[in-house]
Design brief:
single chain; alpha/beta; 3 domains; seven-stranded mixed beta sheet; 10 helices; globular
Length: about 400
């Protein structure tokens, strides 16, 4: 489509500076007017109050009104989208993920980090799971699925769309998950040589927490001869990485019985009939109420406590309480891995909540590592909000 036919969005005076610094979001409060009202998900041209071209992006009702896909005034056609996907694949090839015989699961497209805001694609041993977080990326899902096949060739057997829970609730559409291209049966993937059963149809996120790959490996390095507690275990990734690291015992806890069943299956895949592992369906705070001196490595990887700004304060209180409980209960000389995947919780806010938990416990706590997401979850330097995963490895005297 000719770019000149896109609706024009004029910004208010002095609202163009962030776009000139290549930040890919336009907030609704920055918009002055339109030449014609855009449809939700439609591409628009963004123009400053001084009539300067700033970018082209998908329009959407909500606080983030426009997500920029190009800061250049170029044609947005199939070749444009092909080059975007190809660039994302080249990055993964250059960091060694495409040719790693020990790992065939990784993030293929990471939204703003790959210049494709509103789009996540995770790759599971030949199946790409497509997850749109914007209406614009949802409306072009079939086109991008076809182009992704052109980019990956024989490396792709299917593309599954899993956008029904991630699209803005204000959108007037009723998405249904399903295959956009091909079909896959194999749902076992490999990460650092370990095997995982992945359920992209019923599972959380795209089916697996791809972003913890390197942190799971680090847990393995710390687990030798330790008694390990994996809270919020989901599919048990941290659990059998601890077992791989020669843990004495590993206990997995999740409030979901489906998660516990998946954990048991994954442990059995990698450590058949291994008596070191037990799994429990339980609330995290209930389970941790009285575990004094039972464990000397505790992993706290809860789901996002804050999914929007309004939930920030109670989320920080929850992180404080959770970490305080772990510090109070862990053996002297123990290790705590603690994480936040809430984008609205900053690195400093998370650290302050953990520090407050340490103060409540009265224990001496030292930072050994500061953790983040792996290289296949790149952070656009102009979009620091892309650094959503925060983690600390802590030593407790």
């Amino acid at each position: 489509m000719n770019n000149q036919l896109f609706p024009i969005v004029w910004l208010k005076p002095k609202k163009e500076q962030s776009l000139k610094r290549f930040h890919p979001w336009v907030f609704s409060g920055a918009i002055h007017s339109f030449d014609k009202e855009p449809e939700e998900g439609e591409l628009v041209r963004v123009i400053s109050s001084q009539n300067e071209f700033l970018g082209i992006g998908h329009f959407q009702i909500g606080s983030i009104a426009i997500r920029i896909v190009s800061f250049q005034d170029i044609e947005i056609d199939d070749d444009f989208w092909f080059r975007k996907l190809q660039s994302a694949v080249i990055l993964r090839k250059n960091i060694g993920l495409l040719d790693d015989p020990q790992t065939n699961v990784y993030r293929l497209v990471h939204g703003e980090g790959d210049g494709l805001p509103g789009l996540i694609i995770d790759y599971y041993n030949g199946t790409a799971v497509y997850q749109a977080h914007s209406i614009g990326m949802y409306l072009i899902r079939e086109k991008l699925a076809r182009l992704l096949h052109d980019v990956l060739g024989k490396g792709l057997v299917a593309v599954y769309d899993k956008s029904d829970k991630t699209l803005p609730f204000k959108a007037d559409i009723e998405p249904q998950n399903g295959y956009l291209w091909g079909k896959s049966i194999e749902k076992v993937v490999r990460e650092h040589g370990n095997q995982f059963k992945v359920d992209w149809v019923e599972g959380q996120k795209t089916g697996f927490f791809v972003d913890q790959r390197e942190n799971r490996k680090l847990v393995s390095d710390f687990s030798n001869n330790r008694d390990v507690l994996n809270m919020f275990c989901y599919s048990g990734g941290f659990s059998f990485c601890a077992m791989q690291g020669n843990a004495r015992l590993v206990h997995s806890v999740d409030a979901s019985s489906k998660a516990i069943e998946l954990t048991r299956q994954n442990v059995e895949l990698n450590f058949k009939n291994d008596s070191r592992h037990e799994a429990y369906v339980a609330d995290a705070f209930d389970f941790m109420r009285d575990i004094k001196n039972r464990y000397d490595l505790i992993i706290l990887d809860p789901p996002a406590f804050a999914k929007h700004r309004g939930a920030l304060r109670p989320a920080l209180q929850a992180y404080k309480r959770l970490n305080a409980k772990a510090f109070e209960q862990i053996r002297s000389g123990g290790i705590v891995f603690t994480f936040s995947c809430s984008q609205v919780v900053s690195k400093d806010q998370f650290r302050e909540a953990v520090f407050s938990g340490a103060a409540i416990s009265g224990r001496q706590v030292k930072i050994l590592h500061q953790l983040t997401q792996p290289a296949d979850h790149p952070i656009d330097i102009y979009h620091p909000e892309g650094e959503y995963l925060k983690g600390l490895v802590l030593y407790v005297d």
